[in-house]
Amino acid sequence: IRYCSLHFRTPAKPEPAPLTDQVLSGYDPELWRALQKEEFELFYQPRIDLRQGEICGAEALIRWRHPEKGLQSPDTFIPQCEASGLIVPMGYWIIQEAGRALPAIQEAGMEGRIGINLSFRQFQDTYLASTIERLLDEHNMSSQAMEFELTETALCNDEEHVRNTIEQLSRRGVEFSLDDFGTGYSSFSLLQKLPITTLKIDKSFVDGIPGNPDDEEIVRAIINLAHNLNKQVIAEGVETRAQLEFLIRHDCDQVQGFFFSRPVPLDQFLTLVSRRQKQSSL
Ligand code: C2E
Ligand code: MG
Ligand code: MG
Ligand code: MG
Question: Could you tell me which residue ranges the EAL domain spans (predicted)?
């Protein structure tokens, strides 16, 4: 079944999101209040370059420090934020927050980009590209330090608008990666047309290596596809040395996963970066 994603498929044109629905239903009041009160926090998970053995970037992952329930993972609130549209203002907060953390991260010695997840829902905002550009300007953020992670779902939505958005931002030096690659539907022609620099192999395939012949074949195929299209490839969810060794053997560029580090709060991430700068071995 999972091979489906590698088939050609013409993306269906979605209905435009009716704005009135969003206005009438409003955002979830508790989540809206949490956003106002800055209860959300970005954690950072390092990406490791397999040739240098060094931290070459990070992914920003949102958490909710709920006053009573404690730390909440994104799976418990992101779907709700997408449904109500709150992900749009929240998404801008996330970009600003990563921008605020950037100077300290660079100061600690990290040279790569920070990956920020963009939900398909955020692309329904016509002003996505121009708002991001304005945020970059207002907060003096270097577009060379930012990378946006999209899923195949986002690409399938409204091809032309998504394409314009990606092109407008990449002209400014922002990069784009394709997240959870292999689990959705993407057409090879779109992969080639869009300025996407990186494919992220979904954890579900990485889980099966080494040992599961199908997963091994899929991982190898994605690595080759990426390289043949002149893109970088990252394996997500690397938890064991055996997985790491398989990926090194098959020429994967970067890895991310609990084997190196879980996503951690900013201060711990800074410590991690400065410590690794000194050791720099796998
Ligand atoms: P994602 O973008 O695919 O992020 C990778 C997820 O895999 C993260 O879960 C990360 O903690 C987890 N992960 C990384 N390495 C390992 C590993 O070795 N083992 C295991 N078991 N898990 C690993 P997390 O942080 O819970 O985020 C889940 C999803 O929520 C993300 O998937 C992304 O789709 C969404 N999300 C997270 N932060 C944001 C955000 O700031 N904005 C948006 N729009 N979505 C976000
Ligand atoms: Mg991601
Ligand atoms: Mg992913
Ligand atoms: Mg995911």
Answer: 24-277
